[in-house]
Amino acid sequence: FAYLKEIHEDGVYWLNVVLLTKEDLAAFFASDVPPERVRQFFCFGLSLGRILDAPGGAPCVSAVLQLIEEFEYWMAGSTAQGMKWMMARAAQEPYATTPHVRNPDEPVKAGIYRFQNEVAYEHLFLPDVGIELDYFEVVISLCETLALVYNKFLEEDCYSNLFVFDALLRMDAKVKHHVINLLAKEFTELSMKVAEEEMQSLRGKP
């Protein structure tokens, strides 16, 4: 997370090979990054920040896993949402749907809940944003928050309990999919483009 944060702050040599300046990133984001991503990352980071008050270890793993489940539902298309809606469990109240005291001998589960005819989000926070969000600042803040959240996974029960460790691995894979791998793929594509332009510039010189 620190490396991704540094890239968005100042620009660095991607994988110590190609220099990506902040101007390169700004131009790439303006032309190639879907405009809805800034709000998606903003809401994800804001929701993670609210989980920082939760106890470390298993409760935090469970909360983040549930948040990602809700985040994926929110981002999904209507068809995928419809399928998840059909499998959603009924909630007795619009919030606080998952048990806060779990059985250590049972798997850590996450799922979509519905209260009446609405999805009951426990951890996903979707505020109305009346200002234009800065993509750089949003990603930097998200990386900082993720680093703080991952520090809460250093508790012993994250590794001594098989079910919690399995949930941690599943959660980590989803974070990589939605944030790390996504950004890394784009930086790799951008670095290849920058390197090609530099090579063409050198060939054009006498």
What does this protein look like?
The strands form two sheets. This protein has a three-stranded mixed beta sheet with strand order 3-4-5, with no helix packed on it. The N and C termini lie far apart (42 Å). It is built from eight helices and five strands. A hairpin with a 2-residue loop joins strand 4 and strand 5 (118-119). It is mainly alpha-helical and 206 residues long. The protein has helices at residues 2-10, 22-32, 37-51, 58-75, 78-87, 135-151, 157-160, 162-203; strands spanning 13-14, 18-19, 89-90, 113-115, 118-119. It is globular, with a radius of gyration of 20 Å.
How is this fold's topology laid out?
Elements: H1 2-10, E1 13-14, E2 18-19, H2 22-32, H3 37-51, H4 58-75, H5 78-87, E3 89-90, E4 113-115, E5 118-119, H6 135-151, H7 157-160, H8 162-203
Parallel strand pairs: 3-4
Antiparallel strand pairs: 1-2, 4-5
Helix pairs in contact: 1-6, 3-4, 3-6, 4-8
